[in-house]
Specification:
binds cytidine-5'-monophosphate, two-stranded antiparallel ribbon, Uridine_kinase-like, PRK/URK, 5-stranded parallel β-sheet, binds magnesium ion, alpha/beta, Rossmann fold
Length: 210
């Protein structure tokens, strides 16, 4: 197998990263089959907290770089780049920890990875060939997060609001926004920006054909 290209998609919480990455991935899989493209989520690399009680886990700052096991993500990206399959952890937002299962990710010519703090970490940045930043207005992100966290992540409106003010918003200005400077491409209007989705798809098609 030739050179592997690693594409990172970063940006605020609920800015459309997961939607953008999964749209690119699923449309290419439908068109070309899954061979050659792999997709990873930074969320899967939140530290395991199974040794803590649920109440203790609720106290963790999930927007701080220390919440992530980036060392394992670096290791997995290096292994994939070197042609080895990896076992990606699985994470539950409802229990705030990893679940026992893992998902096997096969190496490919193109690896996509999405997550809030990818471009903040110099060890990860070194591995990225193409970096994308989702530049979605924060009010749009907050509205999306509110609905998503209540519908899908087992939260109350009050808990979303408290967490937003205590950690999510401050971390955006401290860690996420400054990392925009490392992006090659800045995408406006979130995960439904079809022109941006098309551009990345064309680039991946070209890489797969090489
Ligand atoms: O999908 P998204 O990028 O929004 O996921 C990252 C967000 O998930 C972080 O902003 C963090 O606050 C939130 N999170 C959470 N509870 C966890 C783990 C992450 O609310 N247990
Ligand atoms: Mg997401």
């Amino acid at each position: 197998m030739g050179k592997t290209t690693i594409i990172a998609i970063a940006g605020a919480s609920a800015s459309g990263k997961s939607l953008f990455a999964s749209t690119v991935y699923q449309e290419l899989v439908a068109e070309l089959g899954g061979q050659g493209i792999a997709i990873l989520a930074e969320d899967a690399y939140y530290r395991d907290q199974s040794h803590l009680s649920f109440e203790q886990r609720q106290l963790t700052n999930y927007d701080h770089p220390s919440a992530f096991e980036h060392e394992l993500l670096v290791k997995h990206l290096e292994q994939l780049r070197d042609g080895e399959a990896v076992q990606m952890p699985q994470y539950s937002y409802k229990t705030h920890t990893r679940v026992p299962d893992t998902i096997k990710v096969n190496p490919g010519k193109v690896i996509m990875v999405e997550g809030i703090l990818l471009l903040n970490d110099p060890n990860l940045r070194k591995l990225f060939d193409i970096s994308v930043f989702m530049d979605t207005p924060l009010d749009v992100c907050l509205l999306r997060r509110m609905i998503r966290d209540v519908e899908e992540r087992g939260r109350t409106i009050q808990s979303v609001a408290d967490q937003y003010q205590e950690t999510v918003r401050p971390a955006f200005f401290e860690f996420i926004l400054p990392s925009k400077q490392f992006a090659d491409l800045v995408v406006t209007r979130g995960g439904q920006n079809e022109i941006a989705i098309d551009l990345i798809k064309s680039k991946i098609r070209q890489l797969l054909a090489e």
